[in-house]
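User: Okay, second chain of the day. Same drill as before: sequence in, C-alpha cells out.
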Amino acid sequence: MTRIDNKNKQAKMLFGLVGFPLHHSFSKKFFTEKFKMEEIDAEYLNFETENLNELESIILNNPNLQGFNVTIPYKEKIIPLLSQISPEASKIGAVNVVKVVHDSNDILYKLIGYNTDYIGFKESIEPLLNRETETKALILGTGGASKSVAQVFSDIGISWKKVSRNPDDTQLSYGDLTKEIISTHKIIVNATPVGTFPNNKQSPCIPYEHLTSAHLLYDLVYNPEETIFLKSGKKYGASTKNGMEMLERQALAAWKIWD
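Assistant: Same drill. C-alpha cells below.
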C-alpha cells in the first residue's frame, strides 16, 4: 500500500482513464453524462500519459481517485503495478478497470485490477452468433483487448486464431490469410486500434474479397461508427457490428465495481 497526502483530499469523487493517446476516448463522455443524469457528485478525467511510471504520481496528486479505466497500450503493462487482480483478469492476462481501495483513514491505498472487456464483448456478440455455422474465429491483433476476445471464444466453444504483423509460432500473419482460411473462419474480430479516428482511412489488411454473407465482422473500434473494416465487410454481404455496445456494457460493469 502507498501513502496519500490527506492535505490534498478533494470533496468530489474522482474517476478516470489511463492510456495514450486518449483523443478517441469514449469513457469521459459516457461517465460525465451518467454522473449528470443520475446526480452523482463525481468527476471523470483523462490521465493521458506516455509513461506508466507516472501512475503513482497521478494517484498521489488526485487523492480522491476511486477508480480508473485502463486502455491502450497499458492493459497488460499495468498488471505488475497492481496490489492484486481478480481471478478473471488473471486468467485473461489483461486489466481494463482498477479500483483504488483506501484504508479506514484514507492515508494508504492499494490497487485492484479487473477485466470488464470480457463482459462487454461476450454480452454484445453472443446474440449475433449462429452456433451451427460459426465455429471458428480470427482475432486481428495480440494486445490486451485480444486476450479478452480470445477468452470469450474459448469459454463459449468457438475455436480461434490470432493474426499478427509479427506472429509467433501459434499465430497467423496477415499474409497467411488465404481464401480457405477466410472461408472456414466465419467470425473476424478487429481487436487492434487500426481504423480509429483520426486514422479512419486505414483498415486491417485482410482479403475482403473472400468474405460472404455467412461472415460476421466485429470491430472493437467505435469511432468512426462504421470503419473501413466494417464497410468492406458489408460490401461483400457480411454482417457487421462496431464496438459501441461492448464499451457501454464494460463501462456499466466497471461502475458496479467502483460503486
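The CA atoms of residues 183 and 210 lie 7 Å apart.

User: Thanks, on to the next one.
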